[in-house]
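Tutorial handout. Part one gives the primary structure; part two gives the three-dimensional structure as tokens.
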Amino acid sequence: MTRKLESPFVHLLLLVGAIAMLMPFAWMVSTSLKAQNEVFSYPPQWIPSQLLWSNYAQAWAAAPFGRYFINSGIVALAVTFLDLVTSALAAFAFGRMQFPLRNALFTLYLASMMIPHQMTIIPAFLLLKNFGDISPALGLDSYFALVAPFAASAFGVFMLRQSFMQIPNELEDAAVLDGCGRLGFLVRMVLPLSRPALATLALFAFQANWNSYLWPLIVTNSDQMRTVQIGLRYFVGQEGSSQWGLLMAAAVFVSLPVVVLYLFVQRQFTQGIASTGLKQ
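Part two.
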């Protein structure tokens, strides 16, 4: 009887939470179709008196968003791929191989997550500036500058390690008896069995780098290398003169790639969150 009462309550609680989370997105879409004088009208007006679809065309034309989308796509995909590769290799070593000081090194590696990103900005900037003296392709205002600092992550290693450790040792023993090496076991057995965790990490990495603002703002200085988040600055004026309708329209089409990616990996994402957990 208690479970029958709990189920509707839980569903109602989840529904309320879902509505609360979706309201800002609904307001963003609503504002993207409003005239400037309706944005701050009181009482708030959820449905515009006139749907201004032209806001999207004006927002797209206000900045070279075509180039920005290409840059963000290249950077986010490159970082996601490199993060998956480096995290998988490190997680396999920390999770399934025995070597001296393994746990101590893993703990030290995880401790790097406690360092605020803002503290590494200046050293990374100076390092890339010095690389630029060697080759412009390795310096500031380049794809290398946007990708290299995020090619590996302690969070990715931790997440994949938790998944790799759940694979039975008997499976590895059988693979070794069949003549499969460590790298072959990783590629042929571990990675296919860890698809949910890989999809979850890919989504996190893509979303974080697609939405990155501070680092691209610092290391890029030309429209040829700027990303979509920098493009949103075109609609923010001084002293409250921001073009809110155009800004929200730009925010809608800038957010779409992450939403579409989530819809594709939603099932794997849910399984990945449920399976990795915090099991030691």
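Part three, for discussion. The chain has 13 helices and no strands. Residues 65-226+262-276 form a domain with the MetI-like fold fold (CATH 1.10.3720.10).
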